[in-house]
Write a structure and sequence with these properties.
Layout (H helix, E strand, L loop, with lengths): L3 E5 L3 E4 L4 E5 L8 E2 L8 E5 L2 E5 L8 E4 L15 E5 L8 E9 L4 E10 L10 E7 L9 E10 L4 E7 L9 E2 L9 E9 L6 E6 L13 E3 L9 E6 L7 E10 L2 H4 L2 E4 L9 E5 L2 E5 L6 E7 L4 E7 L3 E3 L6 E9 L2 E9 L1
Pfam family, one: Por_Secre_tail
Keywords: Signal
Protein name: Putative outer membrane protein
Length: 343
C-alpha cells in the first residue's frame, strides 16, 4: 500500500489542465538520435520512442539529439534536450514518427512545438511541410494531416510558416502573413478538426491565451479533400524545401490548454479551512462544509491521472505510482491546489 508523505504549498508548479496525449521533451542521452540509423526504407526498432517510416535505401543519415532545450516565455519550463533537422534531404532523407494513444472518437486535436529555424538552408519560395499529425503510427504512415509548412521570404532574409489540412485533391497552403526571423524560438500551435467537411487545420504563431481560451487563428486551411480516420502519431519530415532547424517541447492534446501548458501558481487557496492529508493509500480532503468536492490529480507533465468527486472527503490513491503530483480541489465554485509527493 502506497503512502503520501508530503502535502505542502509551493510557489509554482508547471501544469496544464487538459487532456494531454503526448509530451515529448527529448529527455534522452546525447549523443543520440530519434528514429534510428538503419539504411533500410523503414525501421521498426527506431530509437528513443521514434520509428522511421520513410528513408532512402542505403542512407544512414539521422535526426540527431542536441544538448540543451528551447524555451518560450510564458510556457512551462522545458526539460531534456532538443532535436535538429539538418535542412539537407540528400544527407538526411529520413522521416520519423512517434505514436501516442490512438483516438478515433475525438474529432479535434491540437499539437504545439518550439521551433528555431537556424538559417535559409534549403528553404524555397514555395511551401514545404515538415511536421504534422499521422493517421497511423509505425513503419507505414501515409495519412499525413495538419501539415506545418515553411517557405523563404524577402529574398531569403526571412521565412514564413503555413498550414495545409491534408493531401487530398490539389491542396494549397495558407500562410501566416508574418515574416519570421532566423535564430529566434517560436511557439507554434496547430489545430486539426476532422469533424467538419472538408477537414480544417488552423495555425497560431506565438499566440496569446496560453493555458486559457483559444484565440483566433493566424491562418486556417481546408483545401484538401481527404480525411484522417484516426489520430495516432506526430511526424517529422525531411524533404526538398524543409528547414535547417531545432525542434523541442512537442505536445499533443485534445484541448488548447493541454498544448499551451503554463506555470500554475499553486499557493493560492480559495477554499477556506481546506485540509489535506493521507494515510495508507487514502487521500482525505476536508473543509468546514459538507459539500461535494471534485478532486483532480495531475502529473507534472500536465496529464490528468485521476478525477473524481467525493462526498465523504476521501479518495483512493493507492493505484498511483510514486512521484510528485498536483491536486486540484473544487468546491462550491472555489478551487485550491496542492503539490504532493507520493512514495
Amino acid at each position: 500500500m502506497k503512502k503520501i508523505y508530503t502535502l505542502a504549498l509551493i510557489l509554482f508548479a508547471s501544469l496544464s489542465f487538459g487532456q494531454t496525449l503526448l509530451y515529448e521533451s527529448f529527455d534522452y542521452s546525447v549523443p543520440g538520435n530519434i528514429g534510428g540509423n538503419t539504411t533500410t526504407s523503414s525501421d521498426a526498432v527506431g530509437a528513443n520512442n521514434w520509428l522511421t517510416h520513410s528513408n532512402t535505401s542505403g542512407n544512414s543519415g539521422t535526426i540527431d539529439l542536441a544538448s540543451g532545450s528551447l524555451s518560450y516565455t510564458g510556457l512551462m519550463a522545458p526539460v531534456g534536450n532538443k532535436v535538429t533537422i539538418v535542412g539537407n534531404n540528400t544527407t538526411v532523407p529520413r522521416d520519423v514518427n512517434r505514436a501516442f494513444t490512438t483516438t478515433t472518437t475525438a474529432t479535434t486535436i491540437y499539437y504545439s512545438l518550439l521551433l528555431k529555424v537556424v538559417d535559409n538552408t534549403q528553404l524555397a519560395a514555395s511551401d514545404a511541410y515538415f511536421f504534422g499529425i499521422g493517421g497511423a503510427a509505425g513503419t507505414s504512415v501515409t495519412s499525413l494531416g495538419a501539415r506545418l509548412g515553411i517557405k523563404s521570404s524577402n529574398s531569403g532574409a526571412n521565412f514564413r510558416l503555413s498550414i495545409q489540412n491534408n493531401s487530398g485533391g490539389t491542396p494549397t497552403f495558407t500562410e501566416n502573413a508574418t515574416d519570421l526571423t532566423f535564430g529566434t524560438t517560436y511557439l507554434v500551435v496547430v489545430k486539426f478538426d476532422k469533424g467538419v467537411t472538408p477537414n480544417a487545420a488552423s495555425l497560431w504563431v506565438n499566440p496569446t491565451g496560453l493555458g486559457g481560451t483559444e484565440p483566433t487563428a493566424n491562418a486556417t486551411n481546408n483545401s484538401g479533400n481527404a480525411s484522417l480516420s484516426a489520430f495516432a502519431s506526430v511526424y517529422i519530415r525531411n524533404a526538398s524545401g524543409t528547414p535547417k532547424a531545432e525542434l523541442d517541447e512537442i505536445r499533443v492534446g485534445e484541448t488548447w490548454a493541454a498544448v499551451t501548458a503554463v506555470p500554475l501558481a499553486i499557493d493560492q487557496n480559495n477554499i477556506v479551512g481546506l485540509d489535506i492529508f493521507s494515510k495508507n493509500g487514502v487521500l482525505t480532503v476536508t473543509t468546514p462544509t459538507l459539500s461535494e468536492k471534485e478532486v483532480a490529480i495531475y502529473d507534472l507533465l500536465g496529464k490528468q491521472v485521476k478525477n473524481t468527486t467525493t462526498q465523504n472527503n476521501t479518495v483512493n490513491v493507492a493505484d498511483l505510482t510514486s512521484g510528485i503530483y498536483i491536486i486540484k480541489v473544487s468546491e462550491n465554485g472555489q478551487s485550491a491546489t496542492r503539490k504532493l509527493l507520493l512514495n
